[in-house]
Amino acid sequence: MQWLDLVVLVAYFALMIVIGAICARYTKKQEEFFMGGRSFGKLLQTFAAFGAGTGSNDPIQVGRTTWTSGLSGIWSVLMWLFCTPFYWIFGVWYRRMRCLTTGDFFAERYDSKGLAAAYTLFGLAFYIMYLSAMFSAIAKVATPLIGFDTLESLGVAPEMLKFYLVPTICVIVVLYGIVGGLRAAYWTDLIQGMCIIFLSIILIPAGLNRLAAEGGGENASTLDGFTVMHERMTEDYFAIVGGPRSGEFPLHYIVSLSVLVLVGIVVQPHFIATGGGTAKSELAARTGLVTGNFLKRFCTIGWALTALIALAVLAGNQKVEGDPDFVWGIASLELLGPFKLGLVGLMLACLLAALMSSADAWMLVSSALVTRNVYAAYVDPNASEQRYVTVGRITGLIIIVGAALSALTFYNVFQQFLLAIELPIIFAAPFWIGMYWRRGTRRAAWATVACSTLIFFILPALLPTLMPGLRTNSELTTTNHKVVTVVSRDAKYVDVKRREAARANWQTEYSEAMTIVDATDRQAAIQTLGGQPAVIRIGQRIEDTYPTGGKPVFWSGEATAVGEETLQRVGDVHVERGENRRTEVTRSRRVGDMKCSGLLQVDFLIYHWVGVPLESMSDAMLKTLRLPTRIIIPFLVMILISWITPREDHRHLDRFYVKMKTPVLPDPAEDAKEMERSYEDPTRFDKKKLFPGTQIEMQNPTFADALGFIICFAICFLFIAFAMWVASIGG
Predict the structure, then answer these.
(1) Among 493, 77, 49, residue whose Cα is nearest residue 302
(2) Is the C-alpha dihedral spanning 110, 113, 118, 123 positive or negative?
(3) Contact at 8 Å (CB) between 117 and 37?
(4) Model-level pTM?
């Protein structure tokens, strides 16, 4: 980094703190601190939704998965795409709740302070895990941006940078977020949103120009960079679905992730604010939520294209090959560094903006949960507004510190993210059932929360701890078939560079092995390395090998052989021939005693008991099978327990459902009068029920509901078409 990069970073931090100080003058009450006075229009709601939903882990995550899986890696973040049309409906929900927290929703719907407190614990766990993923991501990308040589000169090992960077980020977020409240968070989100959009596109022209200069000749234009990119990589890198490289994200896994996040997104705590609860009106709520998230979808395409360009430029880079999480940082340094205009510092500032725009909102929403649903509910229900704001600031600080500590101890960005998106299943069924079905009861909600937590999060860790023998139990150490796909084709530029990196890495490891003093250990290390990979040249016939499978069916980790292990072929070798390529697929079964690591997937025992052939499932299909149990079991428990437990007080439910049906008026005084009318006549909207005379509280959709939903769905397919078109340029 140059001195100008440091100036850009310092200026960015100073601006955020100043905004926080200014907004602090307007933050005196709970509603102002936690919800900004519900005064925001379409613009701020758009960037609030965009900022809170876009973290520093997103571009890093897309960069990693695109580097390893080609364009299909875009689905590691684009899986939220088909949730977006539903946001057109959700925005109205959150505004009509008229709550300060989602915990308030559970307390009101189920008449249970305890359920709201339990939701608070979930909210804290969710955000500490999610924020820790973002902190891990920013540390990963900052390492190459600051420079490996610079860190070495300072005596800081790359893996230790997080211990300096993460606390610094926390201090900045605390300074403006806790001081200025949600108003400061939203205004900084507006600025940070612009930064995120900038980082999504700035590397594209720089990378294309670099490619054009390297392979397009003296008179090459920027667009010629696309042609060079296609010349350097095989076409399967540009497939958004399908192909041998998409094994991590096949279509059925994409669909399962989309359904899972749709079911769970409604109980992510920040949605009560960024989902529309802070908006002036229902239109501002739904417009901001949808537009902000479509902005993120657009940026996701930019991140994936950047990663493809980076692969064409950086193929063979040993640091990226060793850890693909470094791809964004090294690409930024390689493509922007030569300009020496402070662009590297600006890139780091933009990535910090992506982190901070999420961290501030999430911190405030989480502190609202503790203040409203724990402190006010159980400790001091009659405290002053100023006291509640103070408690919110203190708890916000604790949450940020907790996320930082989690990031410093758990440093796998994608795994942290996957764990975070599964947590909402704990409260998803009580939310959906409570929103639409009068018969849903408090006891059923508690049973569902307890059951989901036990089956999906407690037992998987507790059982192997109490009974270590389960890890070697022959019935539980079954692995899926090991599938080796070999594709014979002509080598491209990227293949040659990656082979050069593999040879260099082999040489480094061989040199290290030769330094081992003990002859036996030295020989074992050399044998483990195998032979040095052969040199290849562009156009030479090579074989790509894609091994999958051999994973434990009932465990989240790996299966290690205990003693001798053999491979037993299953079926015949499958051969396909295409233009200039030959594909050969071999399927085998691992035979021998195994010891498995990770968590025990208790719900998979259900598949085993009903006879599902788990052995023959691919890795991605096993991940896909996590979806049905995680959705069906909680909803089944919720419905069955509701049927056999006493009904809730109808007067309490009348007030809740009529509130959810009463349109919000922008003027708070007029809205309060309208709510009084609704409470006096809870049946005033019954004529609009979709299923009259039933316990289902679903209203007929309005013309605006239907039209907006259809348009949003059409836009989703346009995004996919746009991504495919961009990837085809120059092909």
Answers:
(1) 77
(2) positive
(3) no
(4) 0.83
